[in-house]
Amino acid sequence: MQFAYSLLIRFVALILPLLARFSAKLQHFVEGRKTVWDTLEKELHGRDNTLWFHAASLGEYEQGLPVMEALKTKYPDFTFVLTFFSPSGYEVRKNNSIADITVYLPLDTPENARRFLQTVRPQMAFFIKYEFWPNYLKQLRTRAIPTFLISGIFRPDQVFFKVYGGFYRKALHTFTHFFVQNDLSKTLLQSIGIKAVSVSGDTRFDRVNAVLQRENTLDFMDLFTQDATTIVIGSSWPKDEELLAHYINEAPETLKFVLAPHNIKTEQLNAFEAQLKRPSVRYSQRDSLSLQDYSILIVDTVGLLTKIYAYADIAYVGGGFGQPGVHNVLEPATFGIPIVVGPHYDHFAEATALVHLGGCVSISNESELKTILDTWVANSIEREEKGNLCATFVQKNTGATEHIVSYITTNYKPTLTHEKM
Hints:
The protein is of the alpha/beta class. The protein has 19 helices and 14 strands.
């Protein structure tokens, strides 16, 4: 099975350059990997003390960040190497301040896995939430490198727990220790003979809770909102935007709306604007127009949404009309804001919990959207009560980072071979 899997990955590597001609995302995926080896060899020259973190994309990076920050404090003389699989993670966070070296992860061929670990020589490896690459895991096991999964979550329908999942179960047995989000994940892993499991919770709660301690003011948002009731629409997709455009068109002009879509492609922004019956302003135009004169702001850049949520009275989190489903509801929740999502949220434990608590409401159509938004706009007391449910939920679930870092630093202390250059 390992041979067939490796053959498939090699085939994918051959056809990706051809497919990349038709996809900007795949172009980043392919082109970004061309410089990985040169970057690693140059930046790691003379450095023997490394820790390796792998994140599939941006969400996993944010999930692993609290642990990276804590370990950076514990091991300041170590070189932190961060890899991404997806362009949507790498392109946004390639200039992050936590890792010393940030690169794409080369495709999971046996040759790449051997070369990567020979070059990086990590004393410990950390995978965030998921992405189990069999050839990399095999090489980690061969080299006896302690390997950890952070904020893992498992479901009964995954291949590891199927009769035919032996190849992937073997890959899981590489890990030295699993830090999982819930009891079900622990039970599932134990059912396949994996005992080194701790229920530590989800580090995303620590990440979003830390946001409250930083400076979250934005001059353009102060100017735009003018203390008006504000609905922030985060990580939206076209289906979300279609429903919301209808609502916005009928809403009072005193109500403010901020749209920060998942994709900031020109055609998607243009399509949304075409559905609006009154003028909107884009973030990129803010210096030439009077923001306070508009009731609709479209954020055509990335990296601002978390701070924008600090200005929301109500949040709509997009993605719930597609697959795999709704985006991150914890970012608005930590600010004590009631949340509206689409119907597809049940694959996400935090969204499911917030819906059950009542701080988040799932809608399936335009009528349901109008009902809940009208209710919360008109009733500030109910709005605040629902928002408090969200904030309390986040507060009660913090602590995963402390659990993970305490376990690692107590049981797996890396050895500093010489001073970091």
